[in-house]
Amino acid sequence: MLQPLYHKPAAAEYYALWNPLTHACATVPGPAGGGGRSFGVIGGYAHPETRRFHLLHSSCEAVPGRDDLMAPVTFRILRVGGDATWRELPFPPLHDKDNTSIFMRSDRARDRHVSVHGNLHWLVQSGATGTVALLVFDTARDKFRVMAAPERRPGLRLETARIVLWSGKLCVLALASKASSAAGTMEMWVLDVDDYGSDSDPAGASWRLRRRIRMVRLDGADLSPAFMAATTVEVVEGVEEGEEIFLRLGDRIDAYNLREDAWRKVSVAKHASLLMHRVSVLRPEMSFGEAARVLVPRTGLLGSLYHCCFREGHEGY
């Protein structure tokens, strides 16, 4: 769990980390300014060999005329529990010589990374051509690369596509074009492990169209706008329900059951949050190193219980 502290207009002075499995916590400083407008932490992971936790941060610039996009200009990485120094990473190689930038969604709630095969993944857009691709970060080598997204006609649009994890595989969910014969449906593209591509062949990833899903609920409601605006899109597998796709928009949750080929509305409390449980990056052996602090229980006003994560020389959070 990651929580920014001391919000400034475009940055957090500190980040609070908490491992709910071990109750270990830590507070770490954000990176120094410069290199564009700060965007914030875009990913976190335990190193595959050392199990030390790392944070990945992006500083970005605004995209003229597009409030929904940001252009990364600097990527930095922090080894939690080290010397608190954010190390700048080389920018991912862009294989189109006319392309000098990539765009990411400015809303981080809709741009969560997907972790699989030891890598972190985001959907991004070419700044020159508008082509959608995947930005891949190799957590073992601290290295970025760009990988091809599913090919279709017309091409994918960043605002109508999401990347999710399905049965341990990368999956892209994308609304079909309104001008196509499949209008009103959502395509489910899956990438098999053996077709993951490589640094030398970024276009070698082979995507398979698994199915088309009708975006209309049984009561006639069109869920396409909800998919585009949803703060959470996840694929999960329940013991009884089987595989389901969840869309969360405000107080509304819609779920599509792949086995029954039908949408249903999920009832939740008005202010409830949607948290999908799967294998966590925060394994018990994951370490915050010397940054680890004790999570101290305290009693607040009216007997409420809360916990403080202490940072040396400061009050707890």
Automatic annotation (TrEMBL):
Superkingdom classification of source: Eukaryota
A Pfam family recorded for this sequence: FBA_3
Residue ranges constituting the F-box associated beta-propeller type domain according to the UniProt record: 17-192
Protein name, UniProt field: F-box associated beta-propeller type 3 domain-containing protein
Organism of origin: Urochloa decumbens
